[in-house]
Amino acid sequence: MPFAGYASFQDCVKRNADKSDPSAYCGTIQRAVEKADAEDRRFHIAKIDEDRRLVFGWASVAVKKDGQRVIDSQGDLIAPEDLEDAAYSFVLHMGDANEMHEREAIGRPVESLVVTPEKLEKMGLPPDALPLGWWLGFHIGNDEAWNRVKKGELRALSIEGAAERVAA
Predict the structure, then answer these.
(1) Is the distance from CB of 56 to CB of 136 less than 8 angstroms?
(2) Residue extents of the structural domains in the chain
(3) pLDDT tens track of the chain, all 168 residues?
(4) 47 DSSP β-pair partners
(5) How many angstroms separate the Cα of 22 from the Cα of each of 18, 25, 42, 101?
(6) Which helix (H) or strand (E) holds 143?
(7) In 3D, which of 113, 159, 147, 154 has the Cα closest to residue 132?
(8) What is the pTM for the complete model shown?
């Protein structure tokens, strides 16, 4: 079964033969990805305002409130500063909501907040008040997509992007 960019557990072991214990290394990654997949519910739409056709939720979290780094469903860690850069670039240059990373726009952002330690401090909140991540809100203008949101068929937010993987 594929995980973290590997075709299978055996593929991971083969591609990491240079590690002192490739099986243990891949097992750790696989467990982390499975845990991240189970926790992906945190990216489900957290709030729907039906009257205004708005949806809100975490697009990505880099660090949980308890300080633990988050491994995403591809097995990657996103540094908070990289997430912040990506969020600002999205709002400045792209901005549209789409469905399943397709090109057609289904909505526009109405809210974007990247939570950083500095912002928490300036808001007078304790450092562990919120996760370090990106909270988004969208107005869903596409009727078909809005109906799918209301039916619970479109339930989550997902960031789309490209990055260069850097070995830890």
Answers:
(1) yes
(2) 1-39, 44-151
(3) 666 778 888 988 999 999 999 899 888 888 777 665 555 445 688 999 999 999 999 988 999 999 999 887 777 788 999 999 999 998 998 888 877 667 788 889 999 999 999 999 999 999 999 999 999 999 999 999 999 889 888 877 766 656 666 665
(4) 56
(5) 7, 5, 31, 34
(6) helix 143-151
(7) 113
(8) 0.69
